[in-house]
Every structure is written in structure tokens, then in C-alpha cells.
Specification:
The strands form 3 sheets. A 5-stranded parallel sheet has the order 2-5-8-1-9. A two-stranded antiparallel ribbon has the order 3-4. A two-stranded antiparallel sheet has the order 6-7. The chain has 307 residues and is an alpha/beta fold. A hairpin with a 3-residue loop joins strand 6 and strand 7. It folds into 3 domains: 149 residues, Rossmann fold (3-Layer(aba) Sandwich), CATH 3.40.50.300; 33 residues, no CATH class; 96 residues. It has 15 helices and 9 strands.
Length: 307
């Protein structure tokens, strides 16, 4: 499916499904509007709910280049947008000094030409790309600080970047922009106003089962049902970090690798480290609590106790 074929919310759901991403109608609607009206989509939610995966799937299914800016504390313009290649500039100056009749003004202009410009993700996203505008993923924006957010306002409003030495660079073809946040801090309203917003929650049991069937088709039906039911119950508990969809998929792969056809008490205790990433959470669930959850699941699914 091409970008021009996306004329409805259902088309968008089908596009994501072709990339093995199960989207509900609410997410598909937000994405459809973002693509149709060429506005950035701001995706907020807990870590591991599939925010970053959406950008990867769009890149693959639309056959567009994926440009990813991974955010972190201290991220600045030099790392995110551009910087000048100072060592190459110095070498150029030394080479020109050895020539007679040097035009200093001409040298100065040359030093700030594209030849010496190192383009980082945001600047790359504004350039023409083979196959159409790229997918720009600004990942985990909440890890950066307020000054970097402020810098993004020009990019997200006008899809342009001002370089003091050369002027304004604008996008001829507006990129598909997805911004993610794990909500470790609040993002300023000024930035959110420039985007469409969608809160991406943990999937329902039905949706998570569909995801597992797509991502781990070799998993037996009983095992998939057990895994989804167990994970869904964990997310209702008071844990430091709930397991995300990625952990659910990893757990399924791990259990298959260990030749489990269904969950049993020993399998759960031995593999909780795949599902939970903090020892306090593992200690809280491992043993009696895990056994109680599994017994409850087996009763709900109408299965006998497994040991």
C-alpha cells in the first residue's frame, strides 16, 4: 500500500496490520489524521507499549527512510541538527594559505558551504529523499530538557531550520513525524499544540493475544492464552515496572525455546527475569504469588492444575 492509498482510518489499520502491528481504531484514527493533514503525531504512554514500533512499521510499509533521533539528557543542536566539520575547515584554510593571491572573503564563504556541514537527524529529515519524505522518529523526548524542546518549535511548526552562517533550510516534502514520550516528565504545551496527541495504553487481552499470534505464530494456543492472561494480571498489580508488549513477546519466545507447551509453576519462576526487569518485582511475584496467579488463570480457562 502506498501513501496515496490511505484514504480512511480502515486503510491505516490495514497498513499497520501489513507490518504486523495490531492497532485499535483510536490509534488508527490519530495516525490517519496525522498523515493526511501532515501534522506531527505525539505518542505518549508507558515504556514498552509499542510507540517506537509504529515508526518502524510505517517506514517499512510505506517504503520510506526511517530517521531516528534518540533523545537523552544534554542533547543539543550539534548532535540533533548540524555541526561544522572544524578539522576539515582548518585543513582547508591551511591549504588555501599556501596559494598566492588568496581571497579571504572567498575562503570565508567556502568554509560555510555544504561541503563542511555535518547533517544530523533533524536536518537530514528536511532533505529530499528517494521514494518520498522520510519518517522522522523523535524518540523519548521526555529525556531531553526545556531548551531543546524550544528549539523544536520551529522545526515542528514550519518544517525549517535556521543555520546562522547560511540561512534557512526548509523541507520541500514534509516528513512524517512521530514523537514519543514515556512521561517521565511533562512536555511543554507549546510543543504539544503543534502535534496531534494520542495516549498509547497497554493493549487489552484480545489485542495482546492478536499481537502474540502475529509476532510468535509458532506458539501453541494454550501457551499464548496463558501468557496473555498472566501478563494482564501482572499489570493490575503494584509493580515498579509493568511488563510491556515487547516483554510479552520475549517471554513467549523464551518459553518456546525451553519447549513449554503451556505455563506451569516451574516455568514461571525460572523465567520471570524475561518478563520483569527489577528484582523487587521478581521477588514480589516469584513463588506463592506466581502460583496463585497461575492457578487463577487455569481455573478461568477451564484447565486443570499443572505441575
Amino acid at each position: 500500500m502506498s501513501f496515496k492509498d490511505l484514504i480512511s482510518v480502515q486503510d491505516t489499520q490495514e497498513l499497520l496490520a501489513s507490518g504486523k502491528y495490531v492497532a485499535n481504531e483510536s490509534l488508527a484514527t490519530a495516525l490517519f489524521l496525522s498523515l493526511s493533514l501532515k501534522r506531527p503525531l505525539f505518542l505518549e504512554g508507558e515504556a514498552g507499549v509499542g510507540k517506537t514500533e509504529i515508526a518502524k512499521v510505517l517506514s517499512k510499509t510505506l517504503d520510506r527512510r526511517l530517521i531516528r533521533l534518540q533523545c537523552y539528557e544534554g542533547l543539543d543542536v550539534n548532535s540533533a541538527v548540524y555541526e561544522w566539520n572544524y578539522s576539515k575547515q582548518m585543513l582547508h584554510i591551511r591549504l588555501m594559505e599556501g596559494k598566492p593571491d588568496i581571497d579571504k572573503e572567498e575562503i570565508s564563504k567556502d568554509l560555510f558551504s555544504e561541503e563542511f556541514l555535518i547533517k544530523r537527524p533533524l536536518l537530514q529529515a528536511l532533505e529530499p529523499q528517494a521514494g518520498g519524505a522520510p519518517v522522522l522518529l523523535i524518540d523519548e523526548l521526555d529525556r531531553t530538557d526545556a531548551p531543546f524542546e524550544a528549539f523544536l518549535l520551529e522545526v515542528l511548526s514550519d518544517f525549517q531550520i535556521t543555520i546562522p552562517e547560511t540561512g534557512i533550510i526548509s523541507a520541500n516534502d514534509i516528513p512524517i513525524v512521530l514523537i514519543t514520550s514515556n512521561r517521565t516528565r511533562e512536555i511543554h504545551d507549546a510543543l504539544k499544540r503543534r502535534c496531534f496527541y494520542h495516549w498509547l495504553d497497554y493493549p487489552s487481552a484480545d489485542r495482546e493475544l492478536k499481537i502474540l499470534q502475529l509476532k510468535v505464530p509458532e506458539a501453541p494456543e494454550i501457551l499464548s492464552n496463558h501468557i496473555v492472561a498472566f501478563v494482564q494480571k501482572l499489570r493490575k498489580m503494584d509493580l515498579f515496572k509493568n511488563p510491556g508488549v515487547a516483554e510479552t513477546i520475549d517471554w513467549a519466545h523464551s518459553l518456546i525455546q525451553l519447549n513449554h507447551l503451556a505455563l506451569d509453576y516451574k516455568a514461571v519462576d525460572n523465567t520471570l527475569g524475561v518478563l520483569l526487569k527489577y528484582q523487587d518485582d521478581i521477588g514480589k511475584i516469584q513463588g506463592d504469588q506466581a502460583h496463585a496467579i497461575l492457578s487463577e488463570i487455569q481455573a478461568e480457562l477451564g484447565m486443570g492444575s499443572q505441575t
